[in-house]
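Onboarding guide, step 5: your first structure request.
Type a short instruction followed by the sequence, for example:

Predict the 3D structure of this protein.
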Amino acid sequence: MIWLFLIPIALLLVGLADLPTGYYTLVRIVVCAISALSCYWSYKSDKKVGIATVVFGLLAILFNPIIPVYLQDKGVWAVIDVAAAILLAIRYFTLRGRVEN
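The system replies with structure tokens like these:
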């Protein structure tokens, strides 16, 4: 199940290119879902609200497709996309040893 983290990482990095709006909607859905899942796993394993719970909760809110956050500057989104990909990669590598695929 941990391999699912690789999908939003790839989508975020590919999203740095100039692509149609529909692609970014797909990115929002996938990143929001995986971030929410990671937020849940963090809360469940720590039995409290920790840093990982807050970080991935905020990522889920930022990338939510229902009430999207619009930032008109593509450069700002590029920075956010790279930061989100890095956070998801860190989460992938930290969970890889603890959770069975």
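Each response can be followed by summary notes, for example: The radius of gyration is 13 Å.
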